Amino acid sequence: MRTRSQSRRRRQQQTLPVVVENFDLEEPIVEQNVVPMADNRTMAQMLQAPIEGYEDAIVVPPINANNFELKQPLINLVQSNKFTGRQDPHNHLRFFNKVTSTFRHPEVPNTSVKLLLFPFSLDGEARDWLDKEPPRSILTWDDLVSKFINQFFPPSKTTYLRNKITNFFQEPNETFNEAWERFKGLLRQCPHHGFSELHQLDTFYNSLNSNDQDALDSAAGGNFLDKMPQEGLAIIESKSKVRYSRSRANDSRVSTDAPLSNSSPSNNSFDMQQIAASLEDKMTIKMKQMMNEMKALVVTTLAPVKSVEEVCVTCGSNNNFNHCPLTQGGNDFPVFHDNIQQF
């Protein structure tokens, strides 16, 4: 039978905490309440705009060159062709790279010069885009080019231009040279089109009218597609430089009143246009010569003609013979009077 003192002792042993000493464990860190310092600024000072957070998006690496300086003429040249967001971004980058390549410094990388100058080449919508980029988010020139192209040349535009290249077709009244220049313009607008040189030449050849295809085959000495890609490109460039290579689809409708023997319709059309071009040149030269001759003529004005004065045949004075004093009555020379009357 337990006594009261034993029961009390047992309850005390149960309520006492068990302390385990572990000298290997670090002592617990007791967090203390940090009392914030009082803000002694006035409300006007608190409402003022912050003086931090205005860093540019482009981070230019430190330049340790002693005599490095961007000359004002270089900045003016960059600003002469500003990009506003409406032009072709690829053309802008080509122009910018060409301008910045003229600046050389042995201790300054060219990419650092580009990072410094590129903001000067932007204006309008493009400038707003760069200002809205997060601070210090563009660290290299490749980062800047990537963000710039993705902003102003989105993937949807790439798809649109790729479709235009694939579905290219020569217009009815478009010359060979005009079609080739337009096709090259599409390729230049989308330099990342991904089409091989073979695909480009095949697409352009099949887009031409029959007359221009025959002309290319004739220049190739057979089938144009039997040539190597480099040879085919040289043939196209050579044909495009012919000044009067019109070769429209309706040029085959040559009048039969003056047929050309031993010639195909396409050759007839081309020869007729060469003749017309030669005649046009000659007429133009002749007209210029005539205009120059007309300009060289000196227009002379005639002097005013004096009034004819009447001279008497008898006395030689300025009077009519009827009023001549030698023929009037009372003179001493009646013989003159009779002669004059008879005359």
From TrEMBL:
Keyword check for Cell cycle: no
Any Pfam family: Retrotrans_gag
Occurrences of domain Retrotransposon gag (ranges): 117-209
Example GO molecular function: RNA-directed DNA polymerase activity
Region (Disordered): 246-269
Domain of life: Eukaryota
InterPro entries referenced in this protein's UniProt entry, alphabetically: Retrotrans_gag_dom
Keywords for the protein's UniProt record, in alphabetical order: Nucleotidyltransferase, RNA-directed DNA polymerase, Transferase
Designated name of the protein: Reverse transcriptase domain-containing protein
Organism for this UniProt entry: Tanacetum coccineum
Organism taxonomic ancestry: Eukaryota, Viridiplantae, Streptophyta, Embryophyta, Tracheophyta
